[in-house]
Write a structure and sequence with these properties.
Blueprint: E1 8-16, H1 22-30, E2 48-54, E3 57-63, H2 73-85, E4 91-96, H3 104-115, E5 120-124, H4 132-142, E6 150-153, H5 162-172, H6 190-205, E7 215-223, E8 229-238, H7 241-248, H8 253-270, E9 273-282, H9 290-295
Helix pairs in contact: 6-8
Length: 303
């Protein structure tokens, strides 16, 4: 006779400043790369869901763009995406760098999460980079800034204290049925993930001024009938003619490098060979165009 175990399920929003490790944490928990990462701020542009399922229940993690003041239409979309997410979840993971300094942006995020009517965990990430005695100093600096349900030091990169984090998360989630099939790790379409993988590789290899001005559109994605090969054509969109030259590189070397790195990740995700063709187009000032921002998948109405 099977024991009747009550399942828990719910949504957890992951918020914080840019580059604090939000996507790294979600990818670790989900067990698969579903959100792109890089050292450049504002890598994540959309709300991305990662799904974690085990015997205790199911948690749907929502990775959000880093919260900073917007400078264009795309920035406004990203800020709206991050702020609206905290009102639609059961629990919030607020991630900070291992520093006791509380600046203007951090104060704003604290105000946002404090207004949410759900428990908030303060996660001090990257503790592998600091001595243990500094962790207590950081906790002292932040503990009275908000009514945090839990304060948990972690390292998403080194997988430190992640089991403790998950144990605590399940304690705060409501009882309920699974929200998605148990074998799903994300609700993101393959096309969307492939576009993001290309953008991730561009973020990692291009010069500093180029990456924020690029978007990626998947033009076609078809599996061959005769062989297990996926043919993908995609366009990298940039804002300036000079950027187009940088992305392509000498004799196409940079574009080839981006394509090779992206194809490897795509093959791991899809489980078959990928034939990837990349093109580059210029759409001047697309980040300040409501139409183009929406056209590249950043639609405020879908938040």
């Amino acid at each position: 006779m099977e024991e009747n175990i009550t399942k828990k399920s719910g949504f957890v929003s992951i918020v914080g400043r840019p580059n604090v490790g939000k996507s790294t944490l979600m990818n670790l928990i989900a067990g698969q790369k579903i959100a792109i990462t890089s050292k450049k701020p504002q890598t994540t542009r959309n709300r991305i869901r990662g799904i974690y399922t085990e015997e205790r229940g199911q948690i749907v993690f929502v990775d959000t763009p880093g919260i900073i003041s917007p400078k264009n239409k795309l920035g406004e979309y990203m800020l709206s995406s991050a702020q609206r997410t905290v009102n639609d979840v059961d629990l919030i993971f607020y991630i900070i760098e291992p520093s006791e300094y509380i600046g203007k942006t951090e104060r704003h995020i604290i105000d946002v999460v404090s207004d949410a009517d759900v428990p908030v965990f303060l996660l001090i990430n990257k503790i592998d980079k600091i001595p243990n005695d500094k962790i207590l100093t950081i906790i002292d600096a932040f503990k009275n800034e908000a009514d945090f349900a839990e304060i948990i030091p972690i390292s998403a990169l080194k997988k430190k204290n992640i089991d403790d984090l998950m144990d605590s998360a399940f304690k705060y989630l409501p009882e309920g049925p699974f929200l998605f099939d148990g074998d799903m790790v994300t609700d993101q379409p393959e096309r969307a993930i492939c576009a993001e993988l290309i953008r991730e590789k561009a973020l990692r290899v291009l010069e500093e001024e180029v990456p924020h001005g690029i978007a990626v559109a998947i033009d076609s994605m078809k599996k061959r009938k005769s062989r297990p090969i996926m043919d993908i054509e995609a366009t990298i969109v940039c804002e300036k003619d000079s950027h187009k030259g940088i992305i392509i590189g000498k004799r196409g070397s940079m574009l080839k490098k981006i394509g090779t790195l992206a194809r490897e990740d795509m093959e791991d995700m899809i489980g078959m060979k990928v034939n990837l063709k990349l093109f580059v187009k210029v759409k001047k000032d697309w980040r300040d165009s409501d139409f183009l921002v929406k056209n590249f998948g950043y639609d405020k109405k879908e938040l």
